[in-house]
Amino acid sequence: MSFASEVKKEILTITENKKEQIAFTFGALQGLSSIVLSSSGIKLQIKSPVLNIIKKIVPLLKEQFNIKTQIGFADEVVVKNKRRYYYYEITEHAMEVIEFYKLMMTDEIDMENELIQTPSTKEAFIRGIFASKGSINDPRKECYHLELVTKKYDLAFVIQQILGEKGIDANIVSRRGLYITYIKKSEWISEFLAFIGASSGVFYFEDYRIYRDSANMANRMANCDIANERKCLENCNKQLQAIEYIRNSNLFEKMPLRLQTVSKLREEYPESSLEELSLYSENIFGKQMSKSGISHCFRDLMEYYKNIINKKNNV
Fold first, then answer.
1. Nearest to 130 by CA among 5, 270, 305
2. Tens-place pLDDT, residues 241-265
3. Does position 225 have pLDDT exceeding 70, yes or no?
4. Which H or E run contains 275?
5. CA–CA separation, 276 vs 62, rounded Å?
6. With 60 as the cut, is the pLDDT of residue 269 above it?
7. Domain residue ranges in the chain
8. 146 exposed, middle or buried (CB, 10 Å; 0-12, 13-18, 19+)?
9. Is residue 143 within 8 Å of residue 137, measured between CB atoms?
10. Cβ atoms of residues 176 and 43 within 8 Å
11. 85-89, 100-104, 311-315: which has the highest mean pLDDT?
């Protein structure tokens, strides 16, 4: 089980009062729910690969809106990997749930929302968002990174403000129509884990952070980091230029699937090293790609790009 899964497992066991349960559900539904229009009307679908989060929020919804509960499951294939998702559909009182938890894309969410007016409800709200659409790198890996994915900018901004109140500096970036609130500094990631109540996660993270930071301090004396970073950025730019040229030539979909996959990974993380791309690949594709495998794919990608150039020059 990944570190992110362990953290989610821990925070889903936290005992909450009624207001905190509602705040948690408020946050979780922002990432888990989708509104479906059908011939029979509007329905709300709640879906997650984590069964326990569905089990946590469904009883509250049943109590709040007097709705029927029946959890189902289905297997979905993403980039050749099968993954099981659990889902719950609300047909009766769907609009009441949508309006109460502000799930329409046009619904604005701000710091004045009555569901998140106390420190404990703000904590539960962020906990719900992380449980539904959060990820964190294992501290044993080469880079620190935590992110929360949201559909709306105003929600990402509220997350940023709440974390700012705790002295945690988070940034927001737009990626493929979604908004990512992310933290890269190890101290702030540790404080985030403490804020959402992941005590065991904090101890695990701090143990490896202390070890890594001590080792890195010694290594920095011998390494020429500036030269390595410059070389990495140069390679990144060349790869991005090649991908853009291939797309503009309408040949992207004709590439082998593995080259399409690594191209999308580079577009998602334009300045990341091979080591970082290997870590991020699990967040996007559900399966970690090796550093050597990514490197090999990039070599083939650049060769593919050069062949296109040569063919056009010979015409």
1. 5
2. 999 999 999 999 999 988 988 898 8
3. no
4. helix 274-285
5. 42
6. yes
7. 12-211, 225-314
8. buried
9. yes
10. no
11. 100-104
The β-bridge partners of 146 are 136, 183
The answer to whether residue 123 scores a pLDDT higher than 90 is yes
- pLDDT tier, 211 (very low <50, low <70, confident <90, very high otherwise): confident
Contact 45, 58 (CB under 8 A): no
CB atoms within 10 A of CB 290: 11
Tokens 């500096």 appear where? 169
- pLDDT interval class at 226 (50, 70, 90): low
* pLDDT over 90 (residue 209): no
Angle between helices 3-11 and 119-133 (to 10 degrees): 140
What residues contact residue 231 under an 8 Å CB cut-off, 6+ apart?
none
The superfamily CATH assigns to domain 12-211 is: Homing endonucleases (3.10.28.10)
116 and 126 Cβ atoms separated by less than 8 Å: no
pTM, to two decimals? 0.68
Q: Is 74 a residue whose pLDDT tops 90? A: no
pLDDT band at residue 172 under the 50/70/90 scheme: very high
Q: Write out the DSSP string of 159-226.
A: HHHHHHHTT---EEEEETTEEEEEE--HHHHHHHHHHTT-HHHHHHHHHHHHHHHHHHHHHHTT--HH
Instruction: In whole angstroms, give the CA distance from residue 218 to residue 215.
Output: 5
CB-neighbour burial class of residue 2 (10 A; exposed 0-12, middle 13-18, buried 19+): middle
Residue 25 has pLDDT above 70, yes or no: yes
Tell me the chain's radius of gyration from C-alpha atoms: 22
Angle (nearest 5°) at CA 155 between 154 and 160 = 95
Order of strands across the sheet that contains 134-136: 134-136, 146-150, 178-183, 171-175
